[in-house]
Amino acid sequence: MKPRFLKSRRTSDHVHHDRWLVSYADFITLLFAFFVVLFASSRADQRKQTQIAHSIQSAFQALGIFPAPPPVEDQPIPTPDPQSLVPPVNVVLGDDLSASPVVQQDLQHLQKQLSSLLSTQIAEHVVALKLGRDGLVISLRETGFYDSGVALPHPQSMGTLDQVAGKIGPTPYDIRIEGHTDNVPIHTAQFASNWELSTARATELAKIFIVDYHFAPARISAAGFAEYHPVASNDTPEGRSQNRRVDIIVLPRISVIPSTPR
């Protein structure tokens, strides 16, 4: 009869070939945990994308570029696809949007509205409208709005200014006001040259838009160009009459979300 300790020793010397399963199981567990973390991160990114898409849509509705959808009552709101909410134009406040088809269509629509509203003034050649590279230009001729050598519009022109402000006020676009003169020198107690006169007319009209029509000041800019940006020849009285003007330019640029004029 053999001793028992010899049998136990022989048993302990046996090699287990399945020990690799322990390391393999650990590796599979770690790999599973890694993919769980990746999946959770991707779900968080999707939620962020949805929130960003909602924010972009809300901003565009506030700017008036895209209409707000009608409210739907007693129905669950589905989670929208973020790709479907990204607008075709990436509007950033202060950026030039002249290449945007949406903005161009908006300015063309505004031009048609003003053309119909100011048809009498346009026929009398005291107002001119032109859509160009800089935006929609609304030219106010001196003959219909200013006395010679005076910076403030005369009271008879305020009705037309009311109509212009009522249309361009609710739009989201910036406004640049430019004063222009002909090449006839001016030297009065108030204005030493055409530079001072053109600049004063632009700034006074800007003040009217801000104070009387409650435009956001950040939307408004003013500049005087004297006789150096003519639209007609200064060799004839008719040409000089066209050059004496104040241009209100609706720019394809957005700096602030405007409030509706009161």
Structural notes for this entry:
By secondary structure, the chain is of the alpha+beta class. It folds into 2 domains: 16-87; 101-250, 2-Layer Sandwich (60s Ribosomal Protein L30, Chain: A), CATH 3.30.1330.60. The protein is built from 9 helices and 5 strands; from the N terminus they run αααααββααβαβαβ. The protein has helices at 4-12, 20-63, 82-85, 101-117, 119-123, 142-145, 158-168, 194-211, 237-243; strands spanning 127-132, 135-141, 175-180, 220-224, 245-250. It has a 5-stranded mixed sheet with strand order 1-2-5-3-4. Helix 4 runs antiparallel to helix 7 (158-168). The longest helix has 44 residues, at 20-63. It starts with a helix and ends in a 12-residue tail after the last strand. Residues 74-89 have low confidence and may be disordered.
| Coarse structural class | alpha+beta
Strand order of the largest sheet: 1-2-5-3-4
Radius of gyration: 35 Å
Main CATH class of the largest domain: Alpha Beta
CATH topology of the largest domain: 60s Ribosomal Protein L30, Chain: A
What is the average per-residue confidence, as pLDDT, rounded to a whole number?
A: 81
